[in-house]
Amino acid sequence: MHPVSRRVASVGTGLLICAAPLAATPAAADAATPQAVVAAAPQQAPKPTLSAKATVKSAKAWQEFRVYGSSTRLASGTRVTLQQLQKKGWVSLPIHMNTTRSHAYNLRVKLGIKGLNKLRMVGGGAVSNTVQVTIR
């Protein structure tokens, strides 16, 4: 064996022997584990959010009202769409707009389905809270 490779092998073995007692003790293992887990876990970006409010609680059929709100962690210009809860689930209505520079939106809405209507906004991977408007 070459003298340099013998020295490298002995140094490597010495490191393993020195490191083994640290990992073998329970206190050392417990102290190292939280830091290792935190450092190894990838940090996920916070999810985007949308808020929604309506200007009225009730309206006549086909009377115009507004649904407005703001977004966080969405790029300005992101398209947001109004959805309505119908029998089979959430249905996207042909009412949409892009968020402004200040991450806000303001839609004009006219509904004709009488009774309690549940509405929400979706866009950019975000879903808003549910807004209830009664159409009479």
What does this entry look like structurally?
The chain is α+β, with helices and mostly antiparallel strands and 136 residues long. It contains two helices and ten strands; from the N terminus they run H-H-E-E-E-E-E-E-E-E-E-E. The strands form two sheets. Strands 3, 5, 6, 8, 9 and 10 form a six-stranded mixed sheet that branches. Strands 1, 2, 4 and 7 form a four-stranded antiparallel sheet that branches. About 7% of the residues have low confidence.
Write the layout of secondary structure elements.
Elements: H1 3-24, H2 26-40, E1 49-50, E2 53-54, E3 58-59, E4 64-72, E5 79-86, E6 89-98, E7 104-110, E8 115-123, E9 126-127, E10 131-135
Parallel strand pairs: 3-10
Antiparallel strand pairs: 1-4, 2-4, 4-7, 5-6, 5-8, 8-9, 8-10
What is the CA–CA distance across the termini? 94 Å
Secondary structural class: alpha+beta
Query: How would the global form be characterised?
Result: elongated
Q: Strand-residue fraction?
A: 35-45%
Helical percentage: 25-40%
- Summarize model confidence as the mean pLDDT: 83
Low-confidence stretches: 12-20
Rg, Cα atoms, Å:
29 Å
Helix count, per DSSP? 2
Q: How many beta-strand runs? A: 10
Biggest beta-sheet profile: 6 strands, mixed
**Sequence of secondary-structure elements:** HHEEEEEEEEEE
